[in-house]
Amino acid sequence: MNYRKLGISGLKLSELSLGAWVTYGGQVGEEVAVKCMSAAHDAGVNFFDNAEAYAHGNAETVMGNAIKRLGWRRESIVVSSKVFWGGDGPNDKGLSRKHVYEACRNSLRRLQLSYLDLFFCHRPDPNTPIEETVRAMDDLIHQGLILYWGTSEWSAAEIMRAHGIARELGLTPPTMEQPQYNMLHRERVEVEYLSLYREIGLGTTIWSPLASGLLTGKYKNGVPPGSRATLEGYGWLRESLITSENIAKVNQLEPIAKDLGCSLAQLGLAWCLKNPHVSTVMTGASRPEQVVENMKAVDVVDKLGSEVMDRIDDVLGNRPESEESG
């Protein structure tokens, strides 16, 4: 496993990491979570991602129990959570000082930790001034409850606004962003954030590198029972992602993976890792065997030379126009 710095910070994250979205406390229980996290840790993974919204907090409880059972040194792992969707009450959601304060403490209680390494604003909050959120995050850092704070799915303009406010007021600026990034979803990471990497040294912990499983090829013959696309509330996945056009692209990627001697999943993960602006690629798994297979993607990265990347771009047909891509 290789380790990359989180933007300009001194923190090093494993290139591949493990997230709890959808699976922990939902699709899988504690026993499977322990096995998946153990397999990831054995492969060199040091970053484990969570959020207050995942399984209504149960994902954090499951992960906290797993960490305790595995007996890991706290210094050896990086743990994150996110704040935005905490419940149904008027102050149980959003990025107000009150909710940020309470969400952090609730996450720590569920995870059985004394501090979070990373704390993300899970979405922008149009109902709360950015300055209020920046001050709340800075307070948490000074209280020793979080070490770094960042954003998830914020626009470049919103991130720059938060950074500017922090610098102006002598507060801690955001260190990282957690955007969606994969072969089918490229514009934000490859174009919109370009100036942020240069100007503020933004780090990225990217999610959905396999487009919710589409890029593994598992949907090419329809939606299999028990897959993510069958879950309640994930109808958008079937409608917007699992399209005939996207499935055709996945079918055309198969020969490329075969030529490289890897699986489609490993190709998709390695492709994300080729981007130097990606600090870590967050993977998901519902069984330990998946973790073991995903981790082999680090061996595929060096096989992705310019010719192979051009072949992939020819299939995808979505290479963004940017100053870096010419």
Output mean pLDDT: 94
Helix content: 40-55%
CATH class of the domain at 3-213 and 272-287: Alpha Beta
The chain-level structural class is alpha/beta
What does the overall shape look like? globular
Q: Which ranges are low-confidence, i.e. pLDDT below 50, for 5 or more consecutive residues?
A: none
Give the tally of β-strands.
10
| Radius of gyration, whole Å | 19 Å
CATH architecture of the domain at 3-213 and 272-287: Alpha-Beta Barrel
Helices, by number, come to 12
N-to-C order of helices and strands: EEEHEHEHEHEHEHHEHHHEHH
Describe the structure.
By secondary structure, the protein is an alpha/beta fold. The protein has a domain at 3-213 and 272-287: Alpha-Beta Barrel (TIM Barrel), CATH 3.20.20. 41% of the residues lie in helices and 13% in strands. It has twelve helices and ten strands. The protein has an eight-stranded parallel β-barrel with strand order 3-4-5-6-7-8-9-10, surrounded by four helices. A two-stranded antiparallel ribbon has the order 1-2. Helix 1 packs across helix 2 (58-70) and helix 9 (244-260) packs antiparallel against helix 12 (306-316). It is globular and about 50 Å long. The two termini are 31 Å apart.
